């Protein structure tokens, strides 16, 4: 694992964008695995800025998102589809037909999860997966206790995740209770993983993810086994890691 320590959220976003831009410039047909939530927003802002200023093209890129809420349509502002269209796909001119998210409105959710796995396989897998980490150690919506062997599946969101995401809704009761997410085994198949982490509230879980036991109770701890992970984290997020290193 390669750890890049930066000062703050803005630098994290800039560094992550730089790696994605270089990857796409190097291989225009790159399959990007993408994430939502608060952490990647700055990264997407830098990608869009670079696209506008320097013309980096995403015409041949395919994107596969980690997850989507069950019951949310792409037209719904709280859906991840809406988020991606607004923050990245439209402003970076990524052809809509080359962007994939699970369909949270599918009548048969299990079938939809399977269909999404096939979509990913037909693209040849993810070249570069951008990942955030939840305060409880989740990656995608793979909550603590999820099998490391899991493929794309339907999940019940934990109270802590619904609470963390309530800021995007008018109340916690409106946060969906289910989602479709790439599984942990699916995420681990990405050729390269870029984990971005910012803020003091992620400091303890980042330490456990990097140096704790590899345990299904901390889904992100599996990343220790991935051969090609880059972590970009700011000083606050690395504060527990650095404290423990000093203590030794
Ligand atoms: P956040 O979420 O970026 O909104 O903190 C990260 C995650 O839950 O994976």
TrEMBL record:
Glucosamine/galactosamine-6-phosphate isomerase domain span: 10-226
Pathways involved: Amino-sugar metabolism; N-acetylneuraminate degradation; D-fructose 6-phosphate from N-acetylneuraminate: step 5/5
Superkingdom as given in the UniProt entry: Bacteria
GO molecular function, one term: glucosamine-6-phosphate deaminase activity
Presence of keyword Oxidoreductase: no
InterPro entries: Glc/Gal-6P_isomerase, Glucosamine6P_isomerase, Glucosamine6P_isomerase_CS, NagB/RpiA_transferase-like
CDD domains documented for this protein: GlcN6P_deaminase
Pfam families xrefs: Glucosamine_iso
Record's catalysed reaction(s): alpha-D-glucosamine 6-phosphate + H2O = beta-D-fructose 6-phosphate + NH4(+)
EC number of this enzyme: 3.5.99.6
Keywords, in A-Z order: Carbohydrate metabolism, Hydrolase
Active site: 67 (proton acceptor), 136 (for ring-opening step), 138 (proton acceptor), 143 (for ring-opening step)
GO cellular component term, pick one: cytoplasm
PROSITE patterns listed in its UniProt record: GLC_GALNAC_ISOMERASE
BP terms from Gene Ontology: carbohydrate metabolic process; glucosamine catabolic process; N-acetylglucosamine catabolic process; N-acetylneuraminate catabolic process
Repressor listed as a keyword: no
Function: Catalyzes the reversible isomerization-deamination of glucosamine 6-phosphate (GlcN6P) to form fructose 6-phosphate (Fru6P) and ammonium ion.
Family, per entry: Belongs to the glucosamine/galactosamine-6-phosphate isomerase family. NagB subfamily.
Protein name: Glucosamine-6-phosphate deaminase
Organism this protein belongs to: Alkalicoccobacillus porphyridii
Underlying gene: nagB
């Amino acid at each position: 694992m390669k750890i890049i320590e930066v000062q703050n959220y803005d630098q994290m976003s800039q560094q992550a964008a730089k790696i994605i831009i270089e990857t796409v410039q190097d291989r225009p047909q790159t399959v990007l695995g993408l994430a939502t939530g608060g952490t990647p927003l700055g990264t997407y802002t830098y990608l869009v800025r670079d696209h506008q200023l320097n013309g980096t093209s995403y015409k041949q890129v395919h994107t596969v998102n980690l997850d989507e809420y069950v019951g949310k349509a792409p037209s719904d502002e709280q859906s991840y589809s809406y988020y991606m269209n607004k923050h990245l796909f439209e402003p970076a001119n990524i052809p809509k037909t080359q962007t994939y998210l699970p369909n949270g409105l599918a009548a048969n959710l299990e079938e939809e999860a399977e269909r999404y796995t096939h979509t990913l396989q037909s693209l040849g897998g993810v070249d570069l997966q951008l990942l955030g980490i939840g305060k409880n150690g989740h990656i995608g919506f793979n909550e603590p206790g999820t099998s490391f062997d899991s493929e794309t599946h339907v999940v019940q969101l934990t109270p802590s995740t619904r609470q963390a995401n309530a800021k995007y809704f008018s109340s916690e009761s409106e946060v969906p209770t289910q989602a479709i997410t790439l599984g942990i085994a699916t995420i681990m198949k990405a050729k390269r993983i870029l984990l971005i982490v910012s803020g003091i509230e992620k400091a303890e879980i980042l330490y456990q993810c990097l140096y704790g036991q590899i345990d299904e109770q901390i889904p992100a701890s599996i990343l220790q086994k991935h051969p090609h992970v880059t972590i970009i984290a700011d000083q606050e997020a690395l504060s527990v890691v650095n404290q423990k290193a000093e203590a030794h």
